[in-house]
């Protein structure tokens, strides 16, 4: 582990982590962490020594020009950790953004957990994105799972019952459970027929989910505009391809056939109060005021 100026003392820190590769369709999950790094002015505190975990013939280092005496700088593929204090928040956030390791996953997770313990992390949120049969024109589903029944009930997600191949997000989630660190994971569904990165609409869906989980305002920047422009571009592509347009209509019809969950008036009022609190507004007799 490479340290910068020592590890800071944090207030009830919560981790938000994402990894490039198999877990990150459309780069949607890592784009969330990168977005928060910029918006919350995150400060780097540590990085994983890449020699033990990465195959540099698969994930090659990048050369760039710099002010070093040699005039060149090599950036090694790795996982980096930063910390930030969101405006108005009562807790600090640890951001983890990296690349899925090529080897020694258990050792990698042990090293990450050592850092979490050193920072007194209280909760971990892992983000991912997967290719799915979801239409680009509808709201992207985000599915979640929790490390224990209490968390599953608190955040209204399922306790994970998935069986099959997994990536570093699943392995780290399991490692957190074994280390008794409460852990959630959220996955955005990305249309498989437009899998290219970036996918701002999927990133936006994950950010909205984070806003609900953290119960704080999350800055969206220009993501809404970028998501709308992305959807418009896909619409143009579909308009020029009859087969693709027909396939999308099939997905939209199937999506429309799925029943929507019913919410009570109390549920809606509670969610609206949370929204107002995050936005710093109040609801008056005549309706919402933000």
Automatic annotation (TrEMBL):
Q: Which InterPro entries match?
A: Proteasome_assmbl_chaperone_2, PSMG2_sf, Rv2714-like
Gene3D superfamilies recorded: PAC-like subunit
The record's section on Pfam families has:
PAC2 (PF09754)
Q: Return the PANTHER family for the record.
A: 3-ISOPROPYLMALATE DEHYDRATASE, 3-ISOPROPYLMALATE DEHYDRATASE-RELATED
> Can you say what this protein is called?
Filament polymerization regulator ParJ
Organism equals Cryptosporangium japonicum
């Amino acid at each position: 582990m490479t340290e910068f100026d020592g590890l800071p003392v944090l207030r009830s820190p919560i981790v938000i982590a994402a990894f490039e590769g198999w877990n990150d369709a459309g780069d949607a999950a890592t784009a969330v962490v990168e977005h928060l790094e910029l918006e919350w002015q995150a400060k780097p505190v540590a990085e994983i020594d890449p020699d033990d975990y990465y195959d540099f013939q698969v994930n090659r280092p990048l050369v760039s020009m710099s002010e070093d005496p040699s005039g060149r700088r090599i950036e090694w593929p790795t996982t980096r950790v930063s910390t930030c204090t969101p405006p108005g928040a009562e807790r600090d956030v640890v951001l983890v953004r990296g690349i899925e390791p090529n080897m020694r996953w258990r050792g990698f997770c042990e090293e990450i957990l050592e850092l979490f313990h050193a920072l007194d992390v209280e909760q971990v949120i892992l983000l991912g994105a997967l290719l799915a049969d979801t239409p680009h024109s509808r709201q992207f589903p985000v599915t979640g799972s929790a490390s224990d029944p209490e968390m599953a009930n608190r955040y209204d997600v399922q306790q994970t019952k998935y069986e099959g191949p997994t990536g570093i997000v699943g392995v780290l989630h399991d490692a957190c459970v074994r280390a008794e660190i409460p852990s959630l994971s959220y996955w955005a569904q990305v249309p498989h027929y437009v899998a290219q990165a970036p996918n701002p609409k999927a990133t936006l869906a994950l950010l909205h989910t984070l806003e609900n989980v953290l119960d704080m305002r999350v800055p969206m920047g220009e993501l809404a505009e970028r998501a709308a422009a992305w959807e418009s571009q896909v619409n143009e592509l579909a308009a020029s391809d009859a087969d693709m347009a027909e396939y999308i209509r099939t997905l939209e019809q199937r999506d429309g056939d799925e029943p929507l969950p019913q919410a009570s008036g109390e549920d809606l009022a509670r969610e609206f109060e949370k929204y107002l609190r995050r936005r710093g507004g109040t609801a008056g007799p005549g309706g919402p005021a933000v």
